[in-house]
Each structure stands twice: as C-alpha cells, then as structure tokens.
Amino acid sequence: MHPSYATFYQCSLHVCSHPPTAALSSAVHVDLALTRVSDTGLMALAARSPLLVRLVLSPCDSYNLWGTGRWTAEGLEAFRRLRPEVVVVTVEC
User: Fold this and answer.
1) H-run or E-run covering 89
2) Span 19-69, pLDDT tens digits
3) 55-75 burial string, b = 16+ CB within 10 Å, else e?
4) What would you measure as the largest C-alpha separation in the chain, in angstroms?
5) What is the DSSP letter of 54?
6) Are 38 and 71 in contact (CB under 8 A)?
7) S-S: 10 plus which of 14, 28, 29, 32, CB 3.0-4.6 Å?
8) Is residue 91 within 8 Å of residue 60, measured between CB atoms?
9) Buried b / exposed e along 20-47 (16+ C-beta atoms within 10 A)
10) Is the dihedral of CA 41, 24, 60, 77 positive or negative?
11) Is 45 in contact with 75 (CB distance < 8 Å)?
12) 14 φ/ψ angles, rounded to the nearest 5 degrees
C-alpha cells in the first residue's frame, strides 16, 4: 500500500442518491447498489481509487422505489478494461 493512503476498507453508499465516487480514493470495498452512479462515476472510481478490489452495483433495469444507477453496459465494460483486477458484483435489491 502506498504510504500516503489511509485505507478506507469498506464503504456502503447503498441507496445514496448522489454517491461521492471521486471522494473514495482510499476505499477497498465499495457498495453502490441502489445509487444513481453513472458511467462518469464509474470512470472516476477507476481513475481515483487505486486500492479498490470489490465494487457492488445494482442492475440499471432493476425496478424499485429508489431508482437505480445510470451506468450502462458500455460504461461497465470500460471500467473493467481500466481495472480488470476489481471484482464487480451486481446484486438485485
């Protein structure tokens, strides 16, 4: 681990309407299920979260009270190309 990072091991922003993806630079496990994360947010995580090893998302086509992410399959593939080591889990909520 880089000495300038204070590790933020797990962060659950479950149901957060505007997740602060750019502020998660030291997160290791991030739960963004039922948030409105977008492709831009996924790219921010890829670029600014070097310690990230696990990301939880809910499918965009999931019907629920809260509304779900605005990420696309293309955005997720771009994230996976940039960060192939990150395990991405999609969960139905």
Assistant:
1) strand 87-90
2) 565 567 778 888 888 787 889 989 988 998 899 999 988 876 655 555 556
3) bbbbebebeeeeebbebeeeb
4) 42
5) E
6) yes
7) 29
8) no
9) ebeebbbbbbbbbbbbbbbbebbbbbbe
10) positive
11) no
12) -50, 125
